[in-house]
Specification:
The chain is mostly helical and 214 residues long. Helix 2 runs antiparallel to helix 3. The longest helix has 33 residues.
């Protein structure tokens, strides 16, 4: 069965590994093994298209738009400004707020792995200090924050990065539900397309930088 695909968006090569991990993270939410295990209590309750639609709409609004997008944006701003201390404080605040949330352990495992891919960038002091804080146990390396840092380090379009992040995450959740419950692929893709159409209107205010609204 072909998994549903996110709406077509152009993805920069530098973020493709992270987006792939985000999708894998979401897909594993419906399985009984893997790094995620059963870290979300919600997806197993999805059994048909109406319940999948309700779940993904809620997830897109409450988790992605209201929690993860602001975190990506805040981390992007810290990295752009060279504010390693503020980034680490942001990570610590995210830990206090989200440590018991769905995907928590998998989130910082994905983030740490992806941040490790930036280790060769010795000139990026924010990256190096963030890595040092994680190694010292002072930070976790949550994947929304690492994604924001990645967008900043590679000077990638912020608006498109946020949309890619959401589309890939939601595609993974729908793919997991489709496979687990043998849902019709065409209807699942239609659900994703409808969700994707709502995402631009939910974006947070973006900084007025030359590439910030691209």
């Amino acid at each position: 069965m072909r998994p549903p695909t996110a709406a077509k968006t152009e993805t920069a090569p530098e973020t493709e590994p992270m987006l792939g991990d985000l999708r894998a993270l979401a897909e594993q939410a419906g399985t009984s093994d893997g790094a995620l295990g059963l870290m979300t209590p919600h997806l197993p309750a999805v059994a048909d298209l109406p319940s999948l639609r309700a779940f993904t709409e809620h997830y897109a609004l409450e988790t992605v738009a209201r929690r993860e997008w602001p975190a990506v944006l805040a981390a992007w701003q810290c990295a752009r400004a060279g504010q390693a201390r503020e980034l680490i404080a942001l990570d610590q605040a995210w830990t206090r707020e989200r440590a018991q949330a769905e995907f928590a352990e998998a989130s910082f495992r994905v983030g740490r792995r992806q941040l490790g891919q930036l280790r060769p960038l010795r000139h990026e002091r924010v990256v190096q200090r963030y890595l040092a804080a994680i190694e010292a146990g002072e930070a976790r390396g949550w994947h929304p924050l690492v994604f924001g840092v990645t967008l900043a380090v590679f000077n990638l379009p912020l608006r498109q990065g946020l949309l890619n992040y959401a589309n890939q995450t939601l595609a993974g959740l729908v793919s997991a539900a489709e496979e687990r419950h043998a849902l019709p692929p065409a209807e699942c893709q239609g659900l994703l397309d409808a969700l994707a159409a709502t995402l631009p209107g939910r974006l947070p205010p973006l900084p007025g930088l030359p590439f910030g609204n691209q």
